[in-house]
Design brief:
This protein has 404 residues and is mostly helical. It contains 14 helices and eight strands. It folds into three domains: 94 residues, no CATH class; 92 residues; 175 residues, Orthogonal Bundle (hpI Integrase, Chain A), CATH 1.10.443.10. It starts with 5 loop residues before the first strand and ends with a helix. This is Site-specific integrase.
């Protein structure tokens, strides 16, 4: 049960002057905490009724004192109501601080989230991509929905954003929104950006993520075997749109370019390099790092096939949305007879595995061509593939050593 702050006024008898006047004080009292402060008036003993807590008489001064006390009390009650809603941990101190204007009301989470989004929005195209901002806004709306459902409120104070809040949000995304663990982990990272900012600004005292662990994600590495890739490459599609999507997919299979990079590729990015061969030289969208990829014959054939002329600013591949590619690929794998769920992103996996690792390209070269920040990242993602290759090599070695 919420208990209100007791607000009262009294005449400070021990501070009575030689003229018989004593200052009037306001007392704030809640549980074991108390705060008193002067209201700026003095009265004599016979002009004050402590039971009624008011100045007596009909003088102008008595009316001014009583009016001022009413104004003070109304202001204190208004501030107190706001603090109760925000869940103040020290309501007496916060009430007094707000009353004298030393501080402001503690921040609320959705308000801060919105402020961070709007600040980032101003740097769209400079520091942040639109797609990144859209994802941040999506998480903001998810958090808003969670607060409405779990707290029956439009917003909550920052001091309520604790481990319980974070755990509840994660459960909400998992059970109510039916999100996959990998998606939840990404969304929780965006929430953490806001709570980290709140900590640095001293809006919260403790990191609500301090005991939180990301959900365990078992990633399945999906790629095509050499035999499956051969089937896909050589299948004669009756529908031109499917053949076209297959070709665009194969371009990334033989270059390792992600969707945004492949379709941002312009003719000026294809250069004749030091070895007198064609290379792709551009910036990787995700990391901003330089991409240097030698073009294999299969990739060159696709570039020539879809070359419609144009200057060096012209794009190499015809435009098509990632959503449409992934939709068409559901048809393609069924027609070709490949029992695997393929999206454009799996083309990059095939480049690393079937094209590079299965053809004895060293791990450090694979890491560089994929644009990973370190070889450890590559090893983490492709450890199983490497183990299969090791197993095959050892089996071959065993046969050679078996003289019997």
């Amino acid at each position: 049960m919420i208990t209100r702050v007791n607000i009262s006024f009294f005449r400070y008898h021990s501070k009575e002057t030689e003229t018989g006047e004593a200052p009037l004080y306001c007392r704030l009292w809640h549980e074991n905490k108390r705060k008193i402060f002067s209201i700026g008036f003095k009265v004599t003993r016979n002009k004050w009724n402590q039971n009624k807590q008011m100045a007596t008489g009909k003088s102008e001064m008595a009316q001014r004192i009583n009016t001022q006390m009413e104004v003070i009390k109304n202001k204190l009650v208004e501030i107190e109501t706001r603090l109760i809603i925000e869940g103040s941990e020290d309501i007496v101190e916060d009430l007094y601080a707000l009353y004298i204007g030393k501080t402001t009301v503690s921040r609320s989470f959705i308000t801060l989230f919105e402020e961070r989004y709007m600040a980032a929005k101003k740097m769209e195209g400079i520091k942040f991509k639109k797609s990144t901002l859209d994802k941040f806004k999506d998480v903001l709306e998810l958090v808003r929905a969670y607060i409405k459902e779990s707290y029956h409120a439009a917003d909550i104070p920052m001091n309520k954003v604790n481990f319980k809040f974070i755990s509840g949000l994660e459960d909400y995304l998992l059970s109510v929104r039916r999100q996959k663990p990998v998606t939840i982990n990404k969304n929780m990272q965006r929430v953490k950006q806001v709570t980290t900012y709140a900590m640095r600004c001293n809006y919260i005292k403790m990191d609500p993520f301090i005991d939180h662990s990301p959900l365990k994600v078992e990633k399945e590495l999906i790629f095509l075997t050499p035999e499956e890739l051969h089937k896909l490459e050589n299948y004669q599609f009756a529908q031109e749109r499917l053949a076209k999507v297959r070709d665009l997919y194969l371009f990334s299979v033989y270059t390792g370019l992600a969707y945004h990079e492949a379709f941002a590729l312009q003719k000026k990015h294809v250069i004749m390099a030091f070895d007198k061969k064609l290379w792709i030289e551009m910036k990787r969208e995700k990391t901003g790092k330089a991409i240097s990829v030698p073009l294999l014959p299969q990739a060159i054939q696709i570039i020539k096939k879809y070359d419609n002329g144009g200057d060096r600013e012209a794009h190499v591949l015809p435009a098509i949305s990632n959503q449409k590619i992934n939709s068409y690929f559901k048809e393609i794998v069924e027609i070709v007879g490949i029992n695997k769920k393929l999206t454009h992103h799996t083309a990059r996996k095939i480049f690393a595995t079937t094209i590079l690792l299965y053809n004895d390209v060293p791990m450090e070269v694979v890491s560089k061509l994929l644009g990973h920040s370190s070889m450890a990242v590559t090893q983490k993602h492709y450890a199983k593939v490497v183990n299969k290759k090791v197993s095959a090599c050892i089996s071959n070695l065993e046969r050679k050593l078996n003289y019997g």
